[in-house]
Structure formats: structure tokens, C-alpha cells
Amino acid sequence: MNIDTFLAHHHVKENPFAAEEARLDPVFGRLIDGSPTHPDFPKVLGQIDKPATSIVFGEKGSGKTAIRLQLARQVAEHNREHPDRRVLTVAYDDLNPMLDNLLRRHKQKADAVLAGFRLEDHQDAILSLAVTRLVDALLHESPDGEDPIALPEHVDKHIKKNVPRQVRVDLAVLAALYDQPRNGSAADRLERLWKKLRLGYQVPQAATFYGAILLSLITVGLGLTMAFVAADSRPWWLIPSLGLAGAAALLLWGLWGYRHAARWRLAHKAARDMPAVNRTAGELAGMLGRFGRSDLLRQPLPSPETSRTGESDSRYQLTRRWIDVLHAFGYTGLIVLVDRLDEPTLVSGDADRMKAILWPMMDNKFLKQDRIGIKLLLPIELRHMLHRESARFFQEARLDKQNLIDRLSWSGAMLYDLCSRRLRACMDGEPNEVTLTSLFENDVSRDLLIDALDQMHQPRDAFKFLYNVIQEHCRIVPEEQPRFQIARLTLESVRRDQAQRVQELYRGLSPA
User: Fold this and answer.
1) Would the CA dihedral through 323, 328, 332, 337 be positive or negative?
2) Which pLDDT value is given to residue 431?
3) How far apart are CA 141 and CA 212, in angstroms?
4) Looking at residues 495-508, what average pLDDT do you find?
5) End of a domain among 352, 376, 405?
6) 3-class secondary-structure state, position 56
7) Residue 174's closest CA among 140, 123, 211, 217?
8) Which residues contact 257 (CB under 8 A, 6 or more apart)?
């Protein structure tokens, strides 16, 4: 019997149990606002306008990505209801671009790159994602499919009247360091942002450059005059003027060269200390050239020397300035959603490589930043490694203060409710009376289904189990003599196979 025929008999328009990835699941997309959430979800979410860190460990298929999507949806709903207390979300769930930048800049093998992985690399990558989103919104360049940041009405007037100049300078510096446009150059975007922020021109630097050119031209003109005018007819002031003009030109060129070289040094140090961001020293030097010397002196630019000695917290200072920028545009905080740590090409599910990437984040200073919530949705393999760490590690990470969910577990009853909700969401008619037992014969009770689902442990495995039950029923029933209720024998047979598969998965004997 055809599966579609079986489902159509029960007024089900699509298979509720076919999807295996929350991001690509149309049923979950429709249910995201009303789907049953895990009991620990409120603890993970916390108070939205006062973001806090949460750490969740879960098996593959336990719903970590679904939780991430639900977190993003809850924050979006909060922002709509409380426009004066909005919170920005950053999805830090694709580490491939950052890891590719590290490989390209260090020109080393993957293991060597991961061995030297730093917390600063995470901070740079997060700031890059956040700053790029705000610049996209200000310049009206948000990519298709991405929700733009909500800005105040009449944003140009808002910037002019309500955003202090220092905050505008901080945003321009952050854009110079971290803006990563999908198309075009960062320098062109900074020029447009500069005009948007009404920062004007740095007159001292321009005056030095153009003054040096003018005095050079005057010196050349006076020199040519001396060369072509006879000695007995030269004005008395020509030689002193030539000397003064030449000396002034040399002085201005020296001053301009000194400032230019200083910016190159700053740019070279910053670019070398930010391998996770695709920014060259030449690009950065050109962009920093827009800023006055006094503005740059007040900026905590990254530097390899201070990062190596631990004498500077430039990333924390830049993050605090970024929070002040967000506040100027109506946002009270930042939530970073960390997910899919096992999926980057460089990691490919290897637990030791995941540990090398994650462990620098396990720092209480980083996890407890004011007005920032880091939501870590982590594979269960890292939980096993975490429990083998020393007491000193736990003292530094202070996991007792990080809203830790030791294991994301689901009971059979929770999975039953979840699967029933998905079934009703896929029906044509009135779904209120339909439950999961409606698909089975009378001797299949609700308790029997709950017991079977309890052996699956995770939503993904529960969906696979029910998908295979329906598939097996349709396989053994002929089209000419259709039966539209699944027999208990079929349920038990598939349950044995799927329970064995799940156990082998946990023991590492079979793939997910």
C-alpha cells in the first residue's frame, strides 16, 4: 500500500515524521510558536531583557537546534512587544568561515590551528557577525532571508540628535575592524557608514597632507624661478623663501609620514591579532586613516603583544563599546546562540577538535559579561570530557552559575505529546480529536506507544521510529486489500529494531 494513501485515509496531508533536521522541517516551522517545548526551556531562555548564559548538553537529535530556533523566535516576539527593551540575537552556528580564515592566515595543518585556538578568536567572530548585521541594517543591505535589525524610525535624525559622537566613532571603528560584507568591499561600506554617522572629515590629517603637497609645489616653483632668473635680477627674498618653503614641506611630509606609519603599525598589529576575521593590514590601514589621532588613541585596538602577555582585555572593551552602540539604537543586550559545534568541515564530529574549539569559551569572565547571554547548545560528547576536567577548570568556568543543563532528556510521555501535536498539524480537517493512537488498531494503547517512544529517547529517533512503523505497515499490506490501522505486531517488530539501533548508536557501534 502506498504511504500517501494511508495518510490520506487519516486526513493527513503530509508525513509528520519524515524530517530529521529542525532547520529544514516545515512542520516544525509551522509549530514553532505552539509546539511543546522541553521542560528545561524556560531555564535556558531566562529573562530576555536581562540576558544570561546557559549551557545545554544533548545527544544528536535531542532538539538542540529546535531550542535554538525557539529561542530566536521568543526573542523576536519579545522585541515586537517591548520595542524599548529589544535584544539582539546572533546565530553563531556556522563556524566554517571563521575556521577557514584561521587556516588561511596561519597556513598550518588543522590540528596545529586548533591547538592554538583562543578565546579572542571566538570574540572576534561574534563581534564580526553582530557588527555586520547592524551595518547591513544602517545601509539597507540585509541579505535575502535574514531579518534586518529593527532601527528607530527616521534613523538619520535619531543618529544626529540621540547618538553621541563618541558612540558613532566607536561604531565606525568596530566596522573598520569587523564588518564582513557579503558583496563589495569593507572600505566602501565604511565610507558610506561614515557619511551616515555624520562624522565629517579629519581636518588636521587632511591639512597635513594637502599642506605638504602645496608647499612642495611652492618649493618647486621657487626653485624653477631661481633656475631661470639671472642672478643679478633675483629678488632678495627668493632664496630665504625657497629655504623656508622647502623646510616646511619636509616638516609636513615627515609629520604626515610619521602619522601614516603609526597607523600602518596599528593596522598591522590588529590584523595579525585577528586571524579569525578576513581583514588584511592594508585594508585596515586605509580604513583607520579616516580617523583622527585622538580618536584612535582612545580605541582598544587588538595587538599580538598584549594578547600574548594577557595585559590587555581589548576584546572585552570592544564588546562593552558594542553594547553601548546597541543601546544607542534601542537594544538593551545581546544573546549569542552557539550550535552545531560538531558540523564544521574541520571538526567533522571529532570530540577532541570540538573540545579545542569550545574550551577557551569556558571562562567565567567571558560567560558572565554584563547584558550578554551566551547560549551554548553542545554535543553530549563534550559533557563526558567536561566531567573529566580538574577542579581548577571548574573554578575558572564556574559552571554552577551558568544555568547548566547536564543532559537534554525526553520521556516517552513528552515524545508522545510532541508526535501527536505534529500529527494534528499535518491534518486537513478538524484536528482536535486526533491522537497518535488513531493510526493503530484498538489493542495498541496509549501506554504501549509511550513505552515504545520512551526507548527512543530523542525526538529525532522517535520520528524515525514512527516513520518506519508507517512504512513497514504499508510495505506488508497490499493495495487491493488496504488496512488503515497499524497492527500491534508491526509496532513491536519495528520497536525492537529501532531500540537496538538506538542502543548501538549510544555505544558508538552505528551512525546516527
Assistant:
1) negative
2) 56
3) 39
4) 84
5) 405
6) strand
7) 123
8) none
Establish if 281 belongs to a structural domain.
no
| Percent of the chain residues topping a pLDDT of 90 | 55
- Residue 510's pLDDT band, with cuts at 50, 70 and 90, is low
The residue from 383, 405, 427 where one domain ends is: 405
193 shares its domain with 71: yes
Residue carrying C-alpha cell 571538526:
347
Q: Are residues 450 and 354 both part of a single domain?
A: no
332 and 193 in one domain? yes
- Which residue in this structure is represented by grid cell 522541517? 25
Q: What is the pTM of this model?
A: 0.86
> Side chain identity at 251, as an amino acid letter?
L
Note every long-range contact of 268-274, with CB atoms under 8 Å and residues 24 or more positions apart, other chains counting.
269/301, 269/302, 269/303, 269/304, 269/305, 270/177, 270/301, 270/302, 270/303, 272/304, 273/120, 273/302, 273/303, 273/304, 273/307, 274/120, 274/124, 274/177, 274/302
Residue 344's region, left for phi above 0, alpha for psi from -120 to 50, else beta, is beta
Looking at residue 368, what DSSP letter applies? T
Residue by residue, DSSP assigns 392-447 as HHHHHH-GGGS-EES-----HHHHHHHHHHHHHHTBSS--TT--GGGGB-TTS-HH
The gap from C-alpha 125 to its chain's centroid, in whole angstroms, comes to 7
Summarize pLDDT for 132-186 with one digit per residue, the tens. Answer: 999 999 998 877 656 778 898 889 999 999 999 999 999 999 999 999 998 888 9
Pair 323, 169: CB distance under 8 Å? no
Regarding whether 391 and 440 lie in a shared domain, the answer is no
- In whole angstroms, give the CA distance from residue 28 to residue 40: 19
> Which of 59, 65, 117 is closest to 383 using CA atoms?
59
Q: How far is CA 474 from CA 3, 6, 7, 204, in A?
A: 6, 7, 10, 80
Residues 182 and 270 in one domain: no
User: Is 26 inside any structural domain?
Assistant: no
Bigger pLDDT: 305 vs 390: 390
The count of domains in the chain is 3
Residue 150: what are its φ and ψ, rounded to 5°?
Answer: -75, 120
Alpha-carbon radius of gyration of the chain:
31
